[in-house]
Amino acid sequence: MTQTERDSIHSSVSGKWTPQSWRTRPALQMPAFPDAALLEKTLAELHELPPLVTSWEVLSLKQQLAEAQEGKRFVLQGGDCAENFADCESSIISNRLKVLLQMSLVLVYGLKLPVVRVGRFAGQYAKPRSSATETRDGVTLPSYRGDVVNGPEFSADARVPDPMRMIAAHSRSAMTMNFVRALIDGGFADLRHPEYWNLRWVDYSARASEYQQMVSSIGAAVRFMEALSGSALHNLNRIDFYTSHEALLLPYEAAVTRQVPRQPGWFNLGTHYPWIGMRTAAIDGAHVEYLRGVRNPIALKVGPSIKPDELLRLMDVLNPEDEPGRLAFIHRMGAAHIAETLPPLLDAVRRDGRRVLWLCDAMHGNTESTQNGFKTRRFSNILGELEQAFDLHAAAGTRLGGVHLELTGEDVTECTGGARDLTDVDLERAYRSTVDPRLNYEQSLEIAMAIVRKRNQS
Ligand code: PEP
Ligand code: CO
What we know:
Elements: H1 3-13, H2 36-48, H3 55-69, E1 74-79, H4 90-111, E2 115-119, E3 133-136, E4 139-142, H5 156-159, H6 164-185, H7 208-229, E5 242-246, H8 250-255, E6 257-258, E7 267-268, E8 273-276, H9 286-292, E9 298-302, H10 308-318, E10 327-331, H11 338-352, E11 357-361, E12 368-369, E13 375-376, H12 379-396, E14 400-406, H13 441-457
Parallel strand pairs: 1-2, 1-14, 2-5, 5-8, 8-9, 9-10, 10-11, 11-14
Antiparallel strand pairs: 3-4, 6-7, 12-13
């Protein structure tokens, strides 16, 4: 494609942006709310609620992502496939925070790089579905689209899209964030006290001694530095933690999009880091239109069917100024396909020369169903995709800047394999996800250690 062709596509999709201009584009994955008046009233209410994040946090994340683009930081993005209202509860939130903190400790120590910590939580309530309806025993109902839209139970009542759920999702996001902020401000993430983050696995895991060794050498280093300088090291108890979710339900996202004093432009203040899912990544679609206009850093999921040309055109639209830290591509190809589908994209972007941050989602291309009907992912495929990603980037002269994972701090059995070698039979024991299978805390730690091993080799 020539530059002129690219320019003309760009100008046709770059008319005047407003938080509502997406409404003029095809909007996939939108629920049909039966009560239009209630929808309008709810969106107006949402629009008046205080923001969940601030513009300066959003801009400082963008700065950190710009550094990750240059190889000066590594990004760890992780959390549930979908949060649900019932899981907005203290131990689930703190366990998820613990596992992310432990993983980031492993990464900081092993990679000798600061880590950008991004939770896939405090707003991850909307899910794309392959079909708008679901049929069971001859009864057809709207599909479950996440707790922000409707309920998972298979009943007509539960499945009606209910606008009031947007207020509930916003409140739960605020509560989640409030708790995480309070934990971190109170010293929960203090590097002098990694024992605060211990989960039960530490007592019996095959990885325990490796992790404990790391923790004690960090402790020794901190004590050494403090002895040397004669005072307590600053900043060991302070970390940044950011939030992200898929910007899928556009009426909600538009309602939390705001202008702020002394800053030009618009910010999505419902999360720091919104992303566009693979199913809604069409260049002329509503989701791309909405996200091109907000000043947040944004990410786009890149699946196996995307072509190099399309990716460059998406860069034109989503980051026309080639702004550092603005745009990430999260590739999610699957262990069986990445070697063939990723290199042409890496090549095109490298030759183009503009900035992008590459992240690897090693989950969504590796989902499969077992004979007894569970949706699962094999640990070896997740790891295999990640390891290949490092090699493919090295061969292409590009850089893998981080990872995107679905994980939980709970002791679930949803993905098979790992140090404990979970099998299809184990899935019956503790399968709790209503959507995609997550790494449990032990498998998550193993992945963090494997990333260190792989990256230090390549
Ligand atoms: C997800 O992240 O849960 C998801 C649905 O991913 P993708 O858009 O990459 O399929
Ligand atoms: Co998912």
